[in-house]
Structure formats: structure tokens, C-alpha cells
Amino acid sequence: MVAALLSVTFVTARLAPAAPPPRTEPYKNPRSPKNPNHLHLQPLSPSSSSSSSAASASSCALQCPHFQSCSGCTHEWDLDRPQVLEEVSKFFKDRGVANFSFDIGRLWEWRCRAKLAIRGTPEIPLVGLYQEGTHSVVDIPQCRGISKLNIQPFDEDLGTGELRYVQMAVTTYNTSLPAAERYREGKVQVSLVWNSRNEHAQNSDKLKALSDFLWRNGGPNGNIHLIHSVWANFQTSSSNIIFGNKWRHLLGERDFWEHIGGIDVSLDPSSFGQANTQAFCSLLRKLQKYVPRGSSVVDLYSGAGAIGLSVAATRKCRQVLGSVKCIEINKESKASFEKSVSRLPKTVDCSINWHNTDASIEPVHWLEGSDVVIVDPPRKGLHPSLVDALRNVALSYSKASKAPKASSEFSSILNEKEEKRPWILRAREAAVHVDGKTNWENSQSWPATLIYISCGWESFKEDCKNLLSNNAWHLEKAHAFNFFPGTQSIEVLAVFKRGPRVAQKKRNREKRRQPSLLVYLFSLWLEKGDIQLFSMVHLLDLASFFLHQYEETRGKKAYQSKIIPGKNIAVAYLFRHCNFT
């Protein structure tokens, strides 16, 4: 039994990719799938590249001995082209998205997180995934051992046994090593799901014996140091829920860190973590580009806050100009969020808040005061109340901007926050506040950008159609990522902008034609200022051009980098005589 666990632990520790970050390619029509099916848990290295068609085919084949019986994968060939990809590409093209891209990623040795069921007997334990459509476990490890500890696997029918599941998560946090070597030296956090109420139950001596055995053989003093830590979760429910509410740290390091999206993220064993860390990092790099610097951001379904905190660190959501609010229903994520905040760079000076509440209850309250909304819902998609709130806010804002009478309708949305709603009060009590207060008070801003991360394609299509109805939003950009090679799953990153597409472009043109308030104030200064070097016309022309650049970049450095040849003297004059604050 223990030998089987160590075998799986060894395999899991070597599943994360050791190659450079995955490449992103424009989508091309996929080859016709030959046989829809794959497995992630014991992948083989791909064949060497060759010009022959046979070599090309084998380079994208699964080559897994468990494929026919295991439920982990759905197709064995064309791992670089999920069968749903053609449909995804057409869906976005029909809705006006140009340059849709698909990030292939790494096809083998990518998994950093796995949950395996434990069934069978102490003499012949089964450690693996369920067979398709059943609760019969397909034994994944190719080596099997007889345990002297006599650990009894869980029996679902009788509710007896001791070990129900094992979760393994790989950390590659050792940033002192090059990226490729970090994955080679990854360590595994092992969580044992034990069939008892707590560590004082009758069979607790076996739990201690098993954890000690794993640590002795896979810990720092073992032949190969594979194990980062050992945890226990206590679950006695007869439902399909894997984890119970009680966790105990048994051995090894308590804190589990990963470097994701430019920041250090703490992940407790109870926290949700992506199985494909490198693909998730690629998605975050793409997402960060669509968040304007200095924005106020609300991150719904935030978990431990990896997305929101990475945006705060990389997009400079300043204290005065912006903030980040993370909304999460799982209260267990609070501890991980607080640890991650403690490791943020000192240059991050914006207001950061985490709230334990359901984002689908009065969602307008959380949308208010934000420029950008990021949603990363579960596979079933957004709650209908949140979809309605996003549509209503966008439509009401559009009406208010066109007709003064409609502003009263829009203000009614704002007034909802004055109610003393108990769920909002509870969320505030459970909140984490960093560097200032939340900025929803006295704020009149509403989301102009919606960034949707989806792991469920069917639910995303329905949500997207609802968001686009009545021209409340329009699709601006879309990208897909191969998070689970060999499956029907595809991860989507979609960027929506408020209002209809044509009207949005028209508003942008009008905005460029309107004189900037800063330019107007600058012209007043010129009436009494020193204008010996340039004529009034030249100065106003230069001021209008460069101050417009300043407003869009919100900073001197980016602004100065756009100086055009022949006007350096004028720019130097402007900076010398103006206080850009």
C-alpha cells in the first residue's frame, strides 16, 4: 500500500514541465481527430521530431497504458488540438473577434496537482482515477506493494476502511534555481483523506504510522527527497465530496508557496489550485495586458486571490487611482490570501481587500467602484443574478450617458448599497483590508471591461450570449489555452467591453476630439506664463498631444518614452515649467 503511494508520489513529482514557457500560435484548423481519447498521471516523453508523418503523429499521441480504462482523458491523438477548438474559433469569429489565438502549451509532464481514490484491499490496493461512468478505481501506478502497516482502503458501499483519497500537489517555488530546474526539483505536498472525525479516533495510530513511513522514505532524510509536507483531512460523509472541513498539518513545511503571475502565492491544501501551473501562468501574462494601469479591479470567484494580487502587483493599481477587491465564498481561502499579501512587493501601494461572501448575492454592490471586473467561475459558469447585474449595469450606464432622464434609473442601482443588508455586513466583518479602506464609498465608476476566465465551454457560450444581448457588452479579444491535453476541456480568456462595438469606437473618436481638462488648465497657465520660446499655437498643440499621452499612461516614464523626434526641446520646456502630479 505504502509502496503504491510512494510510486504515485514519485510520478506526480515529475509531472510538471521542464521546458520553457509554452508557445502561443494563431489558431489553424485542426487535423481531423483520429481517435477521441488520454491520461495525465503517468505520461511518457514525446518522440523526437521528424519530418515523417509517422513521427509527426506519434509526437502528439498520448502513449498511455491506462488510456482505454481510465476516465482521465478522452482522446489519444492530436493532443495539441482539442476537438472543440474549431467550434471555439468559429464562435468568436462570428462575434467579431479577430486574431483569436490558442496556446498549445506542454503536452506531457504538465500536471502539478492530482486527487486519487484509494480502494481495494491492503494486499491489493487500487490507487487511481475512477473508470468512466463508475466508481471502480483504475490502478494507475505500475508498481504495487504489500504494506506491513495493514492500511485498509475505503469501501464506499459499507462506509468502512481508513484511507479514502490522497491529494498531491507539486511546488516548484525554489526561485534560486532556473525555471527548468525548478520543475525537476519539485516537491510534493501529500494530503491523506482519512475516514474518521479527527486525529483522536480509534484508527489514528495507523494515520501516524502511514505519515511517518512516507516522511521517512520520501522526506529530506530519505533516499530521494520528494515530499514537501504531509497533511491529514478528516471526512466521514457518505457523499461524493472528497474533503471534510477538518485539516491537520502532520509533517514537513506548513506553508506551500508557488510563484504565479509575478507574485508569490500561498496555497493551503484546502485551497483551489490549477493542475497545470505553467498554462495558468501563460493565461495570467495575457490577462494582465488587458487591465489598464491604475484601474480599480474587482475579482469575483477569487479563491486565494492569485489573479487579483497578480494584477495589483503588475498593473500598478495605485492607492489614489485604483484598488483590488477579491470576492470569494470559501472562507478557508482567507489564510492563504493573507500570507500571499505579506509577500507582495513593497512597490504595491494600492488598496487591497478580500471579502468572504457569495458574489451572486446583490452583485451590484461589488461591481460599483470598479473599472475592470474579472470573473473565474466554476465549470457551471456565472450565476444568473451576476449575469443580469452585469447586463443591467452596462445598459443603465449607456442610457444615463445619452439621456439625463435615464440617470435617475442608473442612480437607483447606486442607492441599493444604502440598505443594511446582513450578508454585506457579514462580508465586511470577514474582510481583509490592506493599505487603506475600500473605495466603494462615494464612487461613481462602473465596469467598462469584463475579463471572463472559463473552464466550462458550454456554460461560457450561454453566459456570453446573455452578456451580448441588447448590446450591453461586446467581445473585444479572446484566447484559448490547452490546460488539459488529451481531453475535451479548453480554458478560455475572453475580454468584453461595455456597450456595442460600433458605438464604442465612435465614443473613442469623440473622446480624442474633446480637449483635455489638463490642456485647458495648461492654456490658462500660459496666459500668464513665459511663452518666449514658442508661439501659443505650437505650445497648445504640443501640450494637447503630450498631455493626452500622459493621461493614457498615467506616468512620466511611459510618457517620456513616446517623445517624437524634433520636439524634445518643447517637451523639456513643458516638463520644466509644469507640475505633473
Automatic annotation (TrEMBL):
One of its GO terms (molecular function) is RNA methyltransferase activity. Keywords: Methyltransferase, S-adenosyl-L-methionine, Signal, Transferase. CDD domains: AdoMet_MTases. It comes from the Eukaryota. Residues 1-18 form the signal peptide. The active site is at residue 455. Belongs to the class I-like SAM-binding methyltransferase superfamily. RNA M5U methyltransferase family. This is Methyltransferase small domain-containing protein. It comes from Ananas comosus var. bracteatus (red pineapple).
